[in-house]
Amino acid sequence: FIMKSKKSLIIFLILMVSMLTFTACNDFLDVDTPSKQSNESIFSSENETSMALNGVYAKALSDNAFGNFLYNNVQLNSDVDFATNSNEVPQLNAPKRFDCTAESGDSEKLWNAMYSGVETANNFIYNLENSEMYSTENANLTQMLGEAKVLRAMFYYELLCYWGDIPFSMLPTYVTQEFILPITSRDEVYKQLIADLEGIAPLMKTTSEISEGIERPSKEACWAMIARLALQAGGYSLRPADGSKYGKMARPANSQEFYQKARTYADMVIQSGTHALNKEYKQVFIDECNFIVNNNDDVIFELPFGSGD
User: Fold this and answer.
1) What are the DSSP E strand ranges found in the chain?
2) Contacts with 302 (C-beta within 8 Å, 6 or more apart), sequence order
């Protein structure tokens, strides 16, 4: 009887300690992280907003995006830049040689990097536009908004070039709660991206008004991005075709409208007189190698990397 009582007492004490432990854990874990900042806090000052914008740039500069992978592993497939391989057997994972399959790891890497950039840009744009301090009268805030929209268009542009019809949203995932987006026609995506940039372009600063010059998207860069999107939208692309697994090359029915828009905005860049072709061709590369930034020459926008990157 005594042994049973002791055993029961021990079990009771263990249960009590366990209950206290779980209760303590719940209380302990139910706290705010001191380093955590809410969206309301971040988008309540220009300085904090500028730091948040750097997060969008970081996605563009990442190694799996424009920082390296996009140019070294994917785009070497033209008559200007190309990659060779002594092995005649397809590698199945090399977009730069058109050898990749749908299961290509390189393709998945690019897909994930571009959509990660889109999501970060969507978060920034949504929270800035819906913040209490945002006003179209504030030139600094509208400039930051424009930069994020140009970067978002760049991410989507690459996705459109490689995949055509794609999942598309201009809202962050936590707002839509849609984790699997439906496929949207490339024609509609181009249309919405162009309209989005046309809306913000008039509120952006010119290159000469930006302290970092061409290392941030300017009004001229936004115009140039519209022209680029429109030119791509109006051209031929591989589209699904009934009864064929290979698809067909076709242009949209309103291709001429896209071409006219591309011409209009490209001409706006030219007429602005802020960019020209003054330097000798070789000097462009000499200056690049010496980290010399020319804000009034050929380059309209270039992503800013550190000198050691």
Assistant:
1) 166-167, 183-184, 237-241, 244-250
2) 214, 215, 293
Cα dist from 283 to 15, 52, 197, 274, 278, whole Å: 78, 35, 32, 19, 10
Across 6-20, average pLDDT: 60
Residue type present at position 182: P
Render pLDDT for 109-157 as a digit per residue (tens, 0 to 9): 999 999 999 999 999 999 999 999 999 999 999 999 999 999 999 999 9
Tell me the backbone φ, ψ of residue 183, rounded to 5 degrees: -75, 135
3-state helix, strand, coil in the chain (%, to 5): 60, 5, 35
Q: Closest Cα partner for 71 from 179, 141, 158?
A: 158
Tell me which amino acid residue 62 is: S
Between the two ends of the chain, the Cα-to-Cα distance in Å is: 77
